[in-house]
Amino acid sequence: MGKIRVLVVDDSAFMRKIISDLLSSDDRLEVIGTARNGKDGLEQISQLKPDVMTMDVEMPIMNGLDALKQIMQKHPLPVVMLSSLTKQGADMTIHAMSLGAVDFIAKPSGSISLDLDKVRDELVMKVVAAASSRLSIREQVKTAEIKVIAKAPEKNSADRNLVAIGTSTGGPRALQEVIGKLPSALAAPVVVVQHMPVGFTRSLAERLDSLSAIKVKEAEQNETLRNGVVYIAPGGHHLTIVQADSRLIAKLTLEDPVKGHRPSVDRMFESISSLVNVDVCTVIMTGMGSDGTEGLKKMKTKLPSVYSIGESAESCVVYGMPRAAAEAGLLHHVCAVQSIASAIQQRINLLEGVNKWK
């Protein structure tokens, strides 16, 4: 297989040079061109036909968001955004994910990051992964059936329900599809781990909250989880759940990353496995790697009634995390992202619940 052809778009000549050098240092990648803004980038795409594009979020003449909208309409291809760590940069980056960007890299020290080599491995990994990703375009999935791959456990007579979701690459857009369909009266709190650095999860929570009937917020230390609220793990912190009497409480920790991730889906699932008298519904969605599989194994050992949904290959941007859980035999149902909210609701709702899918 030939090298992955990359187009680098950034308004700083210095940054274009650094990004190009870092990418070219990996023998799987070839930088075939550079562009100084979104308009220039669009012209280069039609001429050079790259496999992947890296693009700065904030640029003059045509910024990353405006360019991304046009790219997705005219020349859909995988785009990895580069963002500053400012609040505006984070908001624009989360918006870019919802428009179809595959992933993003946070520049370590602002728009001109002399120390970009700190994130060299992450940049290379994300560009390589983007090259083999599917663009998550809703129209691609014609059927939205919920496929049974194992008999679902009987719903127990627990005091509480809890929904726990793990996702990574492609997750912001997938979460918009799932959380945007959950009702405000959902009889369960929802906890979410989305792999993301510090500074971006608040923007993600705010955007999802503005697009959803259900309330969405970043999880806070020691807060009691309430039904009808989605809690997103803050970047850089593990989110674990503990019990006090009949209450479920969020604990944020700075324990070591698990397999490179903090927040980690495995760590959240592992903490949930110690809960008693709680009926748990887990969801593993699009993402690289296998985060969530080990935690789900522990949970199933301790909580035999846990019910597990995986996103199908057809709608995943990267079919890694759900595939690992499916291959380990840990899932009950597999469905396209469009049907996940419905699968969650049917499990939580005792009347329509699991009997339908025995």
TrEMBL record:
The active site is at 168, 195, 291. Phosphorylated by CheA. Phosphorylation of the N-terminal regulatory domain activates the methylesterase activity. It is an enzyme of class 3 (hydrolase). CDD domains: CheB_Rec (cd16432), REC_CheB-like (cd17541). Residues 156-351 form the CheB-type methylesterase domain. The keyword Cytoplasm applies. One of its GO terms (molecular function) is protein-glutamine glutaminase activity. GO terms for biological process: chemotaxis. Its EC number is 3.1.1.61, 3.5.1.44. Residues 5-122 form the Response regulatory domain. Signal peptide: none annotated. GO terms for cellular component: cytoplasm. Keywords: Chemotaxis, Cytoplasm, Hydrolase, Phosphoprotein. The modification 4-aspartylphosphate is found at residue 56. It comes from the Bacteria. It catalyses: [protein]-L-glutamate 5-O-methyl ester + H2O = L-glutamyl-[protein] + methanol + H(+); L-glutaminyl-[protein] + H2O = L-glutamyl-[protein] + NH4(+). Its main location: cytoplasm. It is found in: Cytoplasm. Belongs to the CheB family. PANTHER family: PROTEIN-GLUTAMATE METHYLESTERASE/PROTEIN-GLUTAMINE GLUTAMINASE, PROTEIN-GLUTAMATE METHYLESTERASE_PROTEIN-GLUTAMINE GLUTAMINASE 1. Contains a C-terminal catalytic domain, and an N-terminal region which modulates catalytic activity. Involved in chemotaxis. Part of a chemotaxis signal transduction system that modulates chemotaxis in response to various stimuli. Catalyzes the demethylation of specific methylglutamate residues introduced into the chemoreceptors (methyl-accepting chemotaxis proteins or MCP) by CheR. Also mediates the irreversible deamidation of specific glutamine residues to glutamic acid. This is Protein-glutamate methylesterase/protein-glutamine glutaminase. The gene is cheB.
